[in-house]
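Hi P.,

Sorry for the delay on this. The queue was packed all week, but I finally got your sequence through. Input first:
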Amino acid sequence: MSATDGTTTFAGRSITSGRQQLILWHDGVPEGLPSPSGSLALTGINAAGDVVGERSGEAGTGSPLWYHAGAFQPASVFGGESPSLNGINGAGDIVGLISRAGAAKVAVWRAGHQADPPVVLSTPDGFFPAFPQIGDDGSVAISGVIDSAAYGYVWAPDGTRRTLTVPPGGAVSGVSGIRGQRIVGSVLGYGAVEWDLSGALLSTPGTPTTEGLAVTSTGTVLMSYRQPGEQTTSPVVVTPGGNWHNLPAPAGSTRAVAASITEAGVVGGDYVDSATGKTLPVRWTCVP
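Then the structure:
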């Protein structure tokens, strides 16, 4: 389970005999979507059931994946662009990356206007962006580098850009989600970090060996934690006030990986079954 609409639905994929399929879990009940060919990467889902991601063909070429109105939409719906799609909000606005004049640019396709040229957000010269995230109000947050130096930015719906504030000596190493008025990501030297939509620093709930993965609108943070000196990570939920809740690996597994959290504090992820070697979905119910 790699994404959630924030309520009761999670999304992920299954692999059977080498063929991949996108799966939606509604209150834990799976629904298989039609199966496009190729390798599938899922990046976002909203409460309307729209799913975005990427499909890679056998030749290694990628094309945008958008499941909308009960069907996978053709890549041509995005006009002459060949974007990577990284997120979708409740209204159906989609954020992703496109190439313009040999440079990667952050682009937003407004709901109902995917065939129109996207809104291209203004970035500093030399900025190389990675994995933009979009909030339900249309705000977009992202991390990236300029000449090997790491930065993070947030754009208001009107296009105003602000820099994500970092603690002393830190540098933004990733932005992973927006929910309500909160942005979650990671800062080198501090681990998981929260910001508000103005870019102001809200909290540093993690430690240097954590990574911020997702956040609720009330400030519950899902993160991965690696004990110093170890390579493997474990999922942890941090509630407002700084209380850590370690999420145990299911019976028969030594490790689980979490990816998303609903507003009610339900976490979705995967684990590897030790007996079969299969990767299976898992949900944890936590305190929001």
